[in-house]
Amino acid sequence: MTVADADAKGRSWIIWAALLALFLGALDALVMTAAMPTIIAELGGLHLYAWTYTTYFLARAVALPIFGKLSDMYSTRMLFLFSIGLFLVASIAAGFSQSMGFLVVTRVFQGIGGGGIFALVYVVLSDVSTPEHRAKTISFASAVWGIASLVGPTLGGFIVTWFSWRWIFFINIPLGLVSFYGIAVHFQEFREKTAGKNLDLLGAFLLSGFILGLLTLIMTGGRELPFLSKPYILIGCTTIISGYWFFRVEMRAENPMLNFNYFKDPSYALGNVLVFFASFAIFSLFAYAPILLQGALSQTPLQVGYAMLSLSLGWSIGSLLAGRKMNWIGQKRAVLIGTVLLVIGTGMTLGFSRTTDITECFVAFLVVGLGMGFVSLTTLLVVQDSVEPANLGVATSFHQFSRTMGGTIGVGLCGGIVTDKLINELTVAGQKLPETLIGMLKESMANLFQQEFQAMIPAGMDAMLQNAVLNGVYLALIIVFAVSVINLGLSLLLPRK
């Protein structure tokens, strides 16, 4: 059977099933945001609040490269079905949770299933696409991310308001079953596999340790764990050792988890670097632009949602445009368009002040989103075209991993900078906040908008707090702009194909 044959025998079913699975995985974290206050009120366990997100994210990040490698060795179809099935079983278990501890455990398994889905969906879409239609087909997947970010918070709020919070997990079941059916019945393998080779178990173990350690350092540094504390230093040393050992093992392995020789190809290396920096920029904006808009520009939550909507909308539109025009404009030109848009959009954010109109924010974020749409889709195609079809799974999953790491490092780095700048500004001004409020800010900048925090702000400090928020987030915007400029320079080095 060929790809052309599949087009006549359920290609649409396969595409929709894959996109639906991706939608569920992307939707999961976003839906929970609106439901968490209700969940905590019923189950308790406030101290585990952050872990409901952290465990899901860590498990997903670890699963991404492993499932990508497995798909090059074994049946992509069976691995995809396993990922969907695990995600659904974990969703059912989460819906029946009677404690926060149990919910956190189920989130680990949801993360593993979600990582498998994210790693394999682009492989499936590539497998069922002819070369001339591959860009257009994969662009639908990029657009799904934007749709999920639009629907997620609203859907979560609706479910919690009219039903039980447990239905944010149960709603996955019918949608997941449809996806499971589409892949089980219609998807067939086309790529040659390397099943005769042994799986690099030591490499998988060391890579998992490195990822877990690195993400823990990024997500906890300066907050849950002080930078110079013994636990932080221990995790840091373990991460470095795991990374070095992983590199040594992979260079000698017969069938490595990650073939470092791929990086000798400028297209492969630059494709991953470009999506890393682009993700650094856009996910940092996703995280800290709302704080700027609400905390410094005095915009309402509705206005903030209106402005942030444009990031997701732009990402979806940019991906679809790039997919439709890829054969005409070419990969290098598409990447250049994306990186130029990122520079223009992030540059516009440097003009934000306390008097900036919300429409200006909308336009700036729309331009950034359009740029990300072009970059995320095109760099994936660049990376896939740089390897043999038999290694498509590893190449695709590492591109997704690069995107994940870029966003994580960006949010973590900018978060530390914003928090430190905010607290220093308030301290230097001689109007230091009460220690209780300082601790809340160190824990999360989002606490700025909690009623408890607002009620404890000393009289006359509102304006000073707004200026401090503006100056703190502005530093993050400068970093985001600088990263975007670097990305534009790197895109010029991409070979023309």
Which key features would you list for this structure?
mainly alpha; 497 residues; globular; Growth Hormone, Chain: A
Helix count, DSSP H or I runs of 4 or more residues: 18
**Portion of residues within helices:** over 70%
CATH superfamily heading of the largest domain: MFS general substrate transporter like domains
Fill in the CATH topology of the largest domain: Growth Hormone, Chain: A
Number of strands: 0
List the helices and strands and how they pair.
Layout: H1 3-8, H2 11-43, H3 51-73, H4 76-95, H5 100-127, H6 134-162, H7 167-170, H8 172-186, H9 201-220, H10 230-252, H11 266-295, H12 301-329, H13 331-349, H14 358-385, H15 392-428, H16 435-443, H17 451-456, H18 462-491
Walk me through what this model shows.
The protein is mostly helical. The chain folds into three domains: 1-189, Up-down Bundle (Growth Hormone, Chain: A), CATH 1.20.1250; 200-254; 261-497, Growth Hormone, Chain: A. Helix content is 78%, strand content 0%. The protein contains 18 helices and no strands. The protein has helices at 3-8, 11-43, 51-73, 76-95, 100-127, 134-162, 167-170, 172-186, 201-220, 230-252, 266-295, 301-329, 331-349, 358-385, 392-428, 435-443, 451-456, 462-491. Helix 6 (134-162) packs across helix 14. The longest helix is centred in the C-terminal third of the chain and has 37 residues, at 392-428. The chain starts with a helix and ends in a 6-residue tail after the last helix. The relative contact order is 0.12.
